[in-house]
């Protein structure tokens, strides 16, 4: 699916462009989230450029593997798990619609929860990804198109990011400073927001 590859190219470029912002947000951690995400996406795009098979399953699998092999810290294994869990549910004919996104994103989030031993309210990427996922559930999606669900998801992602400023970190290096992490946006939540937002921006054109 060349459309999926094009979307990932767009998202990767946006994340790489925001490398310094993500590093600054990670100043209460290791200050390398942006560098790590840029490295992971660069490796993923290089691997995808060499592919002939651009099925959804293969693309997600390659991205997950690239993240696993090229990103250290907490974010690499978590994002790798998310993509690989989604890939495991795909077949050669998987196409995107509201139900498919709900299923794949649900599997990705479940993988992140188990790998990171985390949930919402702990100042992590899940504070963005779970509200985004809810936008694709039957209760929230209703009769909306996939595009409209993604548009709604961008707003939910921003609200989730803002929420991370109001709570202390309980995971990762940032948890060492406890209450002093309040007032800071979580870098993983920000990188998740960027991905959701840039997918929407890609689909607008």
TrEMBL record:
Segments traversing the membrane: none
Domain DhaL: 2-201
Keyword Aminoacyl-tRNA synthetase: no
Pathway annotation: Polyol metabolism; glycerol degradation
Alphabetic keyword roster: Glycerol metabolism, Kinase, Transferase
Any one annotated GO CC term: cytosol
GO molecular function, one term: phosphoenolpyruvate-glycerone phosphotransferase activity
GO biological process, one term: glycerol catabolic process
Enzyme Commission code: 2.7.1.121
Catalysed transformations (reactions): dihydroxyacetone + phosphoenolpyruvate = dihydroxyacetone phosphate + pyruvate
InterPro entries the UniProt entry points to: DhaK_L_YcgS, DhaL_dom, DhaL_dom_sf, Dihydroxyacetone_Kinase
UniProt keyword Transferase present: yes
NCBIfam families: dha_L_ycgS
Purpose of the protein: ADP-binding subunit of the dihydroxyacetone kinase, which is responsible for the phosphoenolpyruvate (PEP)-dependent phosphorylation of dihydroxyacetone. DhaL-ADP is converted to DhaL-ATP via a phosphoryl group transfer from DhaM and transmits it to dihydroxyacetone binds to DhaK.
Known partners and oligomeric status: Homodimer. The dihydroxyacetone kinase complex is composed of a homodimer of DhaM, a homodimer of DhaK and the subunit DhaL.
Protein name: phosphoenolpyruvate--glycerone phosphotransferase
């Amino acid at each position: 699916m060349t459309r999926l590859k094009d979307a990932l190219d767009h998202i990767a470029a946006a994340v790489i462009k925001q490398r310094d912002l993500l590093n600054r947000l990670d100043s209460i951690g290791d200050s390398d989230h942006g560098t790590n995400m840029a490295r992971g996406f660069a490796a993923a795009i290089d691997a995808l450029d060499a592919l002939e098979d651009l099925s959804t399953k293969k693309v997600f699998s390659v991205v997950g593997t690239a993240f696993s092999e090229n990103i250290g810290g907490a974010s690499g294994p978590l994002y790798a798990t998310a993509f690989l869990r989604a890939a495991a549910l795909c077949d050669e004919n998987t196409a995107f619609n509201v139900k498919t996104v709900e299923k794949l994103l649900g599997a990705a989030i479940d993988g992140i929860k188990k790998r990171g031993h985390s949930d919402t309210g702990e100042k992590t990427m899940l504070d963005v990804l779970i509200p985004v996922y809810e936008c694709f559930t039957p209760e929230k999606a209703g009769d909306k198109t996939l595009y409209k669900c993604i548009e709604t998801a961008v707003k939910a992602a921003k609200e989730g990011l803002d929420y991370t400023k109001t709570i202390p970190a309980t995971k990762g290096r940032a948890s060492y400073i406890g209450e002093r992490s309040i007032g800071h946006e979580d870098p993983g939540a920000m990188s998740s927001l960027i991905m959701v937002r840039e997918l929407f921006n890609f689909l607008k054109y």
